[in-house]
Design brief:
The complex is a heterodimer of chains A (458) and B (473).
Chain A lengths: L10 H15 L34 E10 L5 E10 L2 E6 L9 E4 L4 E4 L1 E3 L23 H8 L2 E8 L9 E6 L5 H4 E4 L2 E5 L4 H24 L15 H7 L4 E5 L20 H14 L4 E3 L8 H6 L3 E4 L21 H7 L4 E3 L24 H10 L4 H4 L5 H6 L17 E4 L10 E6 L2 E5 L12
Parallel strand pairs in A: 1-4, 1-5, 6-7, 10-11, 11-12, 12-13, 13-14
Antiparallel strand pairs in A: 1-2, 2-3, 5-15, 7-8, 8-9, 15-16, 16-17
Chain B lengths: L1 H21 L2 H6 L2 E8 L9 E9 L2 E6 L9 E4 L4 E4 L1 E6 L18 H4 L14 E2 L14 H8 L2 E6 L5 E5 L1 E3 L6 H4 E3 L4 E4 L4 H22 L7 H7 L10 H5 L8 H4 L4 H8 L7 H10 L5 E4 L3 H10 L10 E5 L13 H7 L2 E4 L4 E2 L6 E2 L1 H7 L4 E3 L5 H4 L2 H10 L4 H6 L3 H6 L17 E4 L10 E6 L2 E2 L7
Parallel strand pairs in B: 1-4, 1-5, 6-8, 7-9, 12-13, 13-14, 14-15, 15-18
Antiparallel strand pairs in B: 1-2, 2-3, 5-19, 8-10, 9-12, 10-11, 16-17, 19-20, 20-21
């Protein structure tokens, strides 16, 4: 008749770390500079031990000797990743390993951040609803399948906005057996769609104006004691969150079925240049970069996209035929991810049919045994010219940014969630298996023990 | 070769006995009954089988048992001929007879209206709205003359507790007399235990949390009674709550089967009364939960999977020191939501008996079978089985047990899991579930070992009376 176990209270420490990290990273520059030059070590590399008062850590794990992919394109050869409880406490070559740490030998292996998937469903999360906790199943065998494919988090979405931002989202972590551990940052992303017609665009501008006015009022009140801050004008809540950088706006295009079903209107351009330009206009209005959710022709105007600080979800496997005679400005291009990366636009990859509220990477087939793994999507981007090293970012750092969660996931950096993979080869090689996966610092997958690939010997 | 003829002889002799006993029931009560030449599985922990023993039954109870017990003069003697005698099955998590309209065509014409309504919130399936009616009794909505009770009894279920079914707090389970012929004699205890049915959605979690929170406040108020002012108005309200009066079992595990017809009479109207005139500020549903938190009642909490348990703990994580006498019910195992053996540590921390399905489970995406009962037993948990409500499927119980035993579950644990352990879980262990002097004479007579596929359940004795032969086989 003991009392219920109080559930873990790591949240407080985690939140503190999150806030610290958040202030450092989430202020996106309007013009995003390119990522760190390849090969350059991250500034976070020095050991944390002396820097500040050591957080109270119950258990330490040191993954030693592997080639460490930091998630931003950098690789540290034969380095150590130090995990303390649920966070990464250090990455580098000369880390002090605390006494009693559990040592994992990763010599000859690759250590990488867990993959972050921008469009997905399943993995124990409910299909829809307002609260991801409703029916959340931390023992879903699909979670193990996802881990076998290297996935440690994905963006759960439910419905979405149409002509103004809306929708529910949550970063779900594949923390097998841990209900609260599965629920990551909530409502980091909202969505809307283009094209907006003239009226809708006018209404949107008006909403932005009201939001700006409200911001101005708040600024004027700043420092004045005792005055109650005014309520945000109706319908501007999400907009204010986007303008303040608290939420990331995803914009999807309107697929046009004209032509496909013989319904007139000619061949479809899909999420082409015109729609992308309207999305960029929205980005200018809200003063923040947005996320283009699977544009078709972003490769045509990469500089315009880069100039707004926006990001792109790319589906390198999909093909959209150009409109005859307009081959230079319509249709898809396998080089899209490479072209965008070249000008510094963060890119995440996804598989066909995805979108906010319409997930794609799923577990319908036997994940990994068919080619439905996220790494294969990244490989298509490589085939289109994306540098190999850079490609890891489409599943790690850049994907995490696009999910609005880079302060928690997507890179091996001190203070990030300890979502770490140990692989037996290049993360993007089709022959590579995930051998071990940690989520929130907990060992959640071992190839030799789980049914999917334990029979594979080589 | 000899055994076959022996068994035949046994069968015929028993058939005679059955006929003898079944018809003049009233007389059988008076004359003591002696089962001789029996292999007795008492189910008392660490007590092995008593070979060639005798059981003497008088007035529905075991008067004596052992290898050298003398048959009292004038006793009806039944020669079991080397067959095995064990306690009757204890079925504590049943819905038998509660879904009246499903047996629609068979409803007697003179059935009172209250039995025609379905009880409670209408099924515990996903999406059903959570209820907070912990004090609602299921007993008044059940009527006696249903075939299912007779058929279950014939299959060996001598103790039957039926329960309401809805997410949240659907109400109070009722212990029935499966052999009862009158509605008045059907209910042995209208408040056998409190049913708690958590779910994996936050709406149910909220109901659980809010009501346990209220109950904790009531407990605190009871401990430190408020100033004299409100006392007088509270006092008269107390007995009407249905909170204290009708539950001697919880207090001291006292055998309370004796008050058969007489005492039960006033019980059915009680919840209605309580509902009509609720005492000011006192919610009977919360009072029941407060009793639970004070240890005066017990709860059966339905947690079929690891995910269920995680959600349950998540819902109640902010409630400090929440503890109560608890039995975990896992009657809808889903290997895709976490097997119970994967959360054995957390189950152990609940300090609860676990009642689960007597079956092996398949690891998803594999052919691998897992003996969950065996693993829980090995992990030090006390396990019992949830039995089937369908008399036909209940006949397969013995084969299911054989499979579990073949896959590593000790045989005595398997049999105790259908008798002693569920009896203990329901607080009835002083009365049923084992064979010992003073216990109710609920006996199953098998032609051989119950876990021998060639054995047959020959006779069922319920409170010392032989049950009419099973006709469903």
């Amino acid at each position: 008749m003991k009392p219920m176990h109080p559930l873990l209270t790591v949240a407080a420490a985690g939140l503190a770390a999150l806030l610290l990290a958040d202030s450092a990273t989430s202020q996106r520059p309007r013009r995003r500079p390119d990522g760190a030059p390849p090969g350059a070590p991250t500034p976070e590399a020095p050991p944390p031990a002396e820097a500040k008062p050591e957080p109270k850590v119950e258990s330490w794990t040191a993954i030693q000797g592997g080639d460490v992919y930091l998630g931003d394109g950098t690789i540290l050869r034969r380095a150590t990743v130090l995990i303390g409880d649920d966070k990464i406490r250090g990455v580098g070559h000369d880390l002090q390993i605390p006494e009693g740490a559990h040592i994992v030998d990763a010599t000859g292996k690759v250590v990488s951040p867990g993959f972050c998937i921008v469009h997905a469903s399943g993995f124990g999360a409910p299909r829809s609803g307002n609260d991801v906790r409703d029916g959340l199943n931390p023992f879903d065998p699909q979670i193990k399948m996802g881990l076998a494919a290297g996935i440690t988090s994905f963006l759960w979405t439910s419905s979405g906005g149409s002509d103004k931002p809306g929708g529910k989202s949550c970063v779900v972590k594949l923390a097998f057996g841990d209900l609260e551990g599965m629920v990551g940052p909530e409502d980091t992303v909202v969505s809307m769609r283009v094209p907006l017609n003239v009226q809708q665009m006018r209404a949107f501008r008006e909403l932005v104006r009201q939001a700006r006015e409200h911001q101005q009022k708040l600024r004027e009140l700043e420092g004045k004691e005792g005055t109650k801050p005014p309520k945000a004008p109706n319908g501007t809540e999400e907009l204010l969150a986007i303008m303040d950088g608290r939420k990331t706006l995803w914009i999807s295009g309107q697929p046009s079925f004209g032509g496909r079903f013989g319904g007139g209107g000619g061949p479809s351009e899909g999420f082409g240049v015109d729609q992308i330009r309207q999305a960029m206009e929205i980005a200018e209005l809200v003063g923040q970069g947005v996320v283009l959710d699977v544009p078709v022709a972003a490769w045509v105007i990469p500089d315009e996209i880069a100039a707004t600080g926006s990001m792109v979800i790319d589906d390198p496997r999909s093909r959209t035929e150009p409109i005859p005679g307009r081959e230079a400005t319509t249709g898809s291009n396998i080089a899209q991810a490479a072209i965008l990366a070249e000008v510094g636009v963060p890119v995440a990859v996804t598989t066909g049919g995805g979108g906010f509220g319409g997930p794609s990477i799923g577990t319908g087939g036997i994940l990994g045994q068919d080619l439905n793994t996220p790494t294969v999507d990244a490989c298509y981007a490589v085939r289109g010219g994306l540098p190999n090293r850079r490609a890891i970012r489409t599943l790690a750092l850049d994907a995490a940014r696009i999910m609005g969660a880079e302060a928690r996931i997507g890179s091996l950096q001190e203070g990030r969630d300890a979502d770490v993979l140990i692989l037996d080869g290049d993360p993007l090689h089709y022959k590579t298996f995930v051998e071990i996966a940690f989520v929130n610092g907990k060992l959640v997958y071992e190839k030799d023990r789980e049914p999917f690939y334990r029979h594979v010997q080589r | 070769m000899n055994r076959t003829s022996e068994r035949l002889a046994l069968r015929t002799s028993l058939l005679g006995a059955v006929l003898l006993l079944a018809t003049p029931a009233a007389q059988a009560q008076d004359a003591p009954l002696a089962l001789v030449n029996a292999r007795i599985l008492t189910m008392v922990p660490e007590q092995g089988a008593i070979e060639r023993g005798t059981i003497v039954v008088r007035d529905g109870r075991i008067e004596a048992l052992g290898a050298d017990v003398r048959v009292p003069p004038g006793a009806e003697v039944v020669d079991v001929a080397g067959g095995t005698v064990m306690p009757g099955l204890v079925h504590v998590w049943s819905k038998a007879g509660t879904q009246v309209e499903q047996s629609g065509p068979e409803l007697p014409a003179d059935l009172p209206e209250r039995f025609r309504r379905r009880f409670g919130g209408g099924g515990g399936g996903g999406g059903a709205r959570p209820v907070a009616q912990a004090a609602k009794q299921i007993a008044p909505s059940i009527y006696a003359r249903q075939d299912v009770f007779r058929d279950l009894l014939a299959k060996g279920v001598t103790t039957l507790i039926v329960r309401p079914d809805a997410p949240g707090f659907p109400g109070l389970a009722a212990r029935l007399d499966p052999g009862a012929t009158t509605d008045a004699g059907l209910t042995l205890d209208a408040e056998a235990y409190v049913v708690v049915q958590p779910d994996t959605n936050t709406a149910v979690g909220k109901v659980l949390k809010e009501n346990f929170e209220k109950a904790q406040k009531v407990v605190a108020e009871r401990k430190a009674p408020p100033p004299a002012e409100p006392k007088p108005e509270e006092k008269p309200a107390e007995p009407k709550e249905g909170g204290e009066q009708p539950k001697p079992p919880a207090e001291g595990e006292q055998p309370k089967e004796t008050p058969k017809e007489g005492e039960q009479q006033p019980e059915p109207p009680k919840p209605a009364e309580a509902r009509q005139q609720p005492a000011p500020k006192k919610d009977p549903n919360v009072e029941v939960l407060a009793d639970l938190l004070e240890g005066k009642r017990r709860a059966f909490v339905e947690l079929s999977s690891g995910t269920d348990l995680l959600h349950y703990r998540y819902a109640l994580k902010d409630l400090k020191d929440l503890s109560f006498p608890m039995t975990v019910i896992a009657d809808a195992a889903d290997p895709s939501s976490g097997r119970l053996d994967e959360i054995a540590d957390q189950l152990r921390a609940l300090n609860a008996i676990v009642l689960l399905e007597p079956s092996l489970q398949t690891v998803p995406f594999t052919q691998t079978l897992v003996n969950v009962p065996q693993r829980l037993h090995a992990a030090g948990l006390e396990i019992g089985f949830v039995l089937d409500d369908s008399p036909r499927q209940l006949g397969d119980l013995w084969f299911e047990l054989m499979e579990l035993v073949r896959c590593g579950l000790p045989a005595d644990v398997a049999l105790a899991a259908c008798t002693r352990v569920p009896a203990k879980a329901a607080g009835l262990d002083a009365e049923v579930g084992t064979l010992a002097t003073g216990k109710r004479a609920d006996l199953l007579v098998f032609s051989g070992d119950p876990l021998d596929p060639t054995s047959r359940l020959v006779t069922v004795y319920c409170a010392g009376r032989a049950v009419p032969k099973d006709t469903t086989r």
